[in-house]
Amino acid sequence: MQADHAAARSDPEHPEPDPILEPSAPLAPQRFVTEPSGLRVVVLISGGGSNLAALLAAPQPEQYPVHIVAVGADRHSATGLELARQAGVPTFVERVSDHPDRASWDRALTEVTAGFEPDLVVSAGFLKLVGPQFLARFPGRYINTHNTLLPAFPGMHGPADALAYGVKITGATLFVVDDGVDTGPILAQVAVPVLDDDSEETLTERIKQAERAQLVEQVSLMARHGWTIQGRRAFTS
Ligand SMILES: Nc1nc2c(c(=O)[nH]1)N[C@@H](CN(C=O)c1ccc(C(=O)N[C@@H](CCC(=O)O)C(=O)O)cc1)CN2
Ligand SMILES: NCC(=O)N[C@@H]1O[C@H](COP(=O)([O-])[O-])[C@@H](O)[C@H]1O
């Protein structure tokens, strides 16, 4: 039976369906629900942590609050760690260079993060690609905020790339991380104009303002309503 099936698929008269042009059965939606006691969130950072600061400062309702239970970084120089300490939030640092290889770093990052039992992990300027162990431990529960309108300008230099290309509109994208680089299902996007006299610095700062507001709003929606991932599509309602 198995062999017949394989033979039929390799038969040029019965080609495999193109998954984009001829989608087969729709993928079952994955639903993530939250408890009224709130959403436990670990935030990962590498730098100043202005997105983290916005999450820490957001007013919280009695039901479905967002609890930042820990902040992690890949480097001691991440100045956002100090914001967490000042807010009384536990911090940790997991450096790649303290491990024999990337897989061992990935395992250690996974274990220390999982120790805080998060419902959601938010990467906010975390400049490391996580590996398969991390993604397998937090499936559908690891999100990243990126400073362009994906799929345009992925990677580490989004605003500079957008400016160099000459686009008139860019923005920020919140997405569920997968095993690619900035390729996961998109939860939300906000558009930001590129002005004629923008430098990389002015554009980066305008994007960051919109990005922070989007992140706070979307994480709050995730706490209140949960979220859904269906194939390439993701929703916070
Ligand atoms: N598996 C994934 N991990 C992460 C993603 C992702 O899409 N898939 N997004 C990031 C954040 N990110 C952009 O938003 C990003 C982070 C890091 C890199 C990268 O190439 N990093 C290098 C090291 C750079 C350095 O340390 O200076 C690396 O990881 O070796 C690209 C994009 C969160 N994680
Ligand atoms: N692709 C990775 C990347 O460039 N991420 C960007 O780093 C900034 C972190 O700012 P913050 O430390 O002030 O929150 C954010 O704008 C985020 O989109």
Automatic annotation (TrEMBL):
Site feature (Raises pKa of active site His) residues: 182
SUPFAM superfamilies assigned to the protein according to its UniProt record, in alphabetical order: Formyltransferase
Binding site for (6R)-10-formyltetrahydrofolate: 102, 127-130, 144
Pfam families, A to Z: Formyl_trans_N
EC number: 2.1.2.2
Domain of life where this protein originates: Bacteria
Cellular component, GO annotation: cytosol
MF-aspect GO terms: phosphoribosylglycinamide formyltransferase activity
Cross-referenced CDD domains: FMT_core_GART
The protein's annotated pathway: Purine metabolism; IMP biosynthesis via de novo pathway; N(2)-formyl-N(1)-(5-phospho-D-ribosyl)glycinamide from N(1)-(5-phospho-D-ribosyl)glycinamide (10-formyl THF route): step 1/1
Catalyzed reactions per annotation: N(1)-(5-phospho-beta-D-ribosyl)glycinamide + (6R)-10-formyltetrahydrofolate = N(2)-formyl-N(1)-(5-phospho-beta-D-ribosyl)glycinamide + (6S)-5,6,7,8-tetrahydrofolate + H(+)
Entry similarity comment: Belongs to the GART family.
Official protein name in the record: Phosphoribosylglycinamide formyltransferase
Organism of provenance: Nakamurella panacisegetis
Lineage summary: Bacteria, Bacillati, Actinomycetota, Actinomycetes, Nakamurellales
